[in-house]
């Protein structure tokens, strides 16, 4: 059974940084591309970033490009999202995703 568990969310001031982590289990971690999605209050789910199985290829939403960095550690079955220069509009619940499998989500609140 696939499990995706996010951690690392919380409150941060504008301009601050947070690092989200996603622990994967129940599947061959290094065989799958992985994604971070987010859903802001009252908004639809948005794809934030994607990373290929080998961790080399990455794609970012324009809204986070050059501020967020997606990475993975296949040996430890972990995926990360380093978020820098956070803005009010980055406030959302962030989800780790692999195809049809989703984590429970973790809240990030950017507030002064």
Characterize the biggest β-sheet. Answer: 7 strands, mixed
Structural class: mainly beta
- N-C termini distance: 40 Å
Total of DSSP H or I helical runs spanning 4+ residues: 0
Series of secondary-structure elements, N-terminal to C-terminal: EEEEEEEEEEE
Multimeric state: single chain
How does this structure look, described?
- By secondary structure, the protein is mainly β.
- It has strands at about 5, 10, 20-25, 35-40, 45-50, 60, 70-75, 80-85, 90-100, 100, 105-110.
- About 0% of the residues lie in helices and about 50% in strands.
In short:
Helix content is 0%, strand content 52%. The protein is mainly β and 112 residues long. The radius of gyration is 13 Å and the shape is globular.
């Amino acid at each position: 059974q696939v499990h995706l568990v996010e951690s690392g969310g919380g409150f941060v001031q504008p301009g601050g940084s947070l690092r989200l982590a996603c622990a994967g289990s129940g599947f061959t971690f290094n065989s799958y591309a992985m994604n971070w999605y987010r859903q802001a209050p009252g908004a639809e789910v948005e794809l934030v970033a994607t990373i290929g199985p080998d961790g080399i290829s990455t794609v970012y939403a324009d809204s986070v490009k050059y501020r967020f960095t997606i990475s993975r550690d296949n040996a430890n079955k972990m995926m990360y999202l380093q978020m820098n220069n956070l803005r009010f509009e980055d406030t959302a619940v962030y989800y780790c995703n692999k195809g049809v499998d989703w984590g429970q989500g973790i809240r990030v609140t950017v507030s002064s």
